[in-house]
Amino acid sequence: MKRNLILWVLVAVLAVPAAWGQFTTFKGQAKDAEGKPITGAIVTLQSKDTGRKYDLKTDKDGKYYSLGIQTGIYDIKISKNGQLLFNYSGVRVALGDETVFNIDLKKEQQQSGISEEQQKQIEAAKQENAKVKNLNDMLAQAKTAEESGNLEQAVQLLTQATATDSTRDLLWFKLADYERLSANKLASPSEKAARYQKAAEDYKKAIAIKPTGAYYNNLGEAQVKSGDTAGAIASYNQAAQIDPTNAAQYFYNEGAVLTNTGKVDEAIAAFDRAIQADPAKADAYYWKGVNLLGKATMKGNKMEAPPGTSEAFNKYLELQPSGQFAEPAKQMLTSIGATIETSFGKTKASTKTKK
After folding, report:
1. What is the pLDDT of residue 116?
2. What is the DSSP letter of 60?
3. What mean pLDDT do residues 69-76 have?
4. Dihedral angle computed from the Cα positions of residues 233, 234, 237 and 239, in that order, rounded to the nearest 10 degrees
5. Among 101, 98, 103, 99, which residue's Cα sits nearest to residue 80?
6. What is the DSSP letter of 11?
């Protein structure tokens, strides 16, 4: 867990009226808790009376300098890379040759009575921030490698990242994604199978840390590719349970797997669950119709489809009158002598096909 310890120090000042409209030189040097110069930091002065702000940047020696700071009472803070390092309240910038204001974090910590345990927490937070930055860099590099088509490099980078820190679910998830995507590019069937199995293992590691619908869904895809159909069905069902908002897609994926493995009745049931979760999911109606048509029987020269077949195809056409399955849906309706209806949300105009 990240902990940012911000030390607040009230600097006692005399209540002297400010000589507004007069300016002075303001300078100083910033040092960290180890006595080293804080380079590239921003020292911000904000007037307590007017709200005016001045931002001074520290140089390679930690020094900052400005010729034109209006006299008055200021709140002063020092920050680096967006992180507040220290804050002072009520600092007087007086009229004169110059105002020297040095920032010494080691001294401030000692005066603030910071404990050894708190110092350890500060150091631990710094190390955590450095680790997170390194991991984010790896994720960015892996994404760049993927976008350039170098999935193997993406796999290597995320393998290294999970070796650095195995407690982060996103690292395992992205590694598994790259493994799954790269598997299809491998020449050897045995290598493909092994890569898909490895992807499934890494999805499970992500799930063990933080179970989500997306993680289970992609696990299901890897399991299908590795031949574990039963595992894939279980994963899609688990995804729908965890993430009901996207349940329609998970049940649809389940129906697709069952369709491809010839389990017609189970596929129809899965597509019905997808439709129940999202009544506007057009493709679920189409594939439900395809599976129902697979149960059709012949009576003489006439094909008789189970109840609900024409309704499924027509519902698809209502939702997607010019969709990718529109023509096949019409052809299947014609094959069973059913009416084709293509309007949605309006009075349906239907054409009766000739028997």
Report:
1. 63
2. T
3. 88
4. -110
5. 103
6. P
